[in-house]
Amino acid sequence: MDNPQNSSTEKQKMLKGEYYNSFEESLLYDRKRAKKLCQQLNAIPDGSQGERSKIIQNLLQTDKQVWIESPFRCDYGYNIEVGDNFYANFGCIILDCNLVKIGDNVKFGPNVQVYAATHPTNPEERIAGKEMAYPITIGDNVWIGGGSIILPGVTIGNNSVIGAGSIVTKNIPENVVAVGNPCRVLRSINC
């Protein structure tokens, strides 16, 4: 018999990077809330800054200065921690099944995708519905070029630039320009 003190909720398992059931009732409810807020945000015409800001702050549960162009999609919203002066261009997707921490003065080009969510490589485990998620950290003053994809568990250091179209599969240090698939350091930035 399981010890109730050792049992975790599906949300707790998700945030610990353990296998979890994404179809658990409270997670479904939270995703439905985020989907509704994303739909509201995406339906607002360009230029409606006040209304857009209110929805973004509600979705991300922040009071920071944030601007996200439409269309935008995320899983939960509340697992996205943003610093001041964050900007995401058109077509951003953040699968925030674990913490996605974004520093101050970060800029995303169009169609940047951030995936904390992942699935087992074993097909039987995938078929059984197992999922996992690993945190992503993007430091201060980072620029992510358009069409880049950030994979689960990655950290990008302060002041770094990720070239357009890059697939970031491993940690990127501070103060570098990194590009490619897989993304690799091209050169240092003298700050």
Radius of gyration: 17 Å
In helices, the fraction of residues equals: 10-25%
What fraction of the residues are assigned to beta strands by DSSP?
25-35%
Largest sheet: 7 strands, mixed
Averaged pLDDT: 94
Q: Which sequence of SSEs, written as H and E, runs from N to C?
A: HHHEEEEEEEEEHEEEEEEEEE
* Shape call: globular
Q: Work out the helix count.
A: 4
Q: From the 3D structure, determine the CATH topology.
A: UDP N-Acetylglucosamine Acyltransferase, domain 1
- The counted number of beta strands is 18
Strand order of the largest sheet: 1-4-7-12-15-17-18
Q: Cα distance, first to last residue?
A: 58 Å
Low-confidence spans: 1-6
Structure description:
- This is Acetyltransferase.
- It comes from Crocosphaera watsonii WH 0401.
- Belongs to the transferase hexapeptide repeat family.
- InterPro entries: Hexapep (IPR001451), Hexapep_transf_CS (IPR018357), LacA-like (IPR039369), Mac_dom (IPR024688), Trimer_LpxA-like_sf (IPR011004).
- Keywords: Acyltransferase, Repeat, Transferase.
- This protein has helices spanning 10-16, 25-43, 49-60, 123-127; strands at residues 66-68, 72-74, 80-82, 86-88, 92-95, 100-102, 107-108, 113-115, 117-118, 132-133, 136-138, 143-144, 149-150, 155-156, 161-162, 167-168, 176-179, 184-188.
- With 191 residues, the chain is an alpha/beta fold.
- It has a single domain (10-188), classed as UDP N-Acetylglucosamine Acyltransferase, domain 1 (3 Solenoid).
- Strands 1-4-7-12-15-17-18 form a seven-stranded mixed β-sheet. The chain has a five-stranded parallel β-sheet with strand order 2-5-8-13-16. A four-stranded parallel β-sheet has the order 3-6-11-14, with no helix packed on it.
- The chain contains four helices and 18 strands.
- Mean pLDDT is 94; it is low at 1-6.
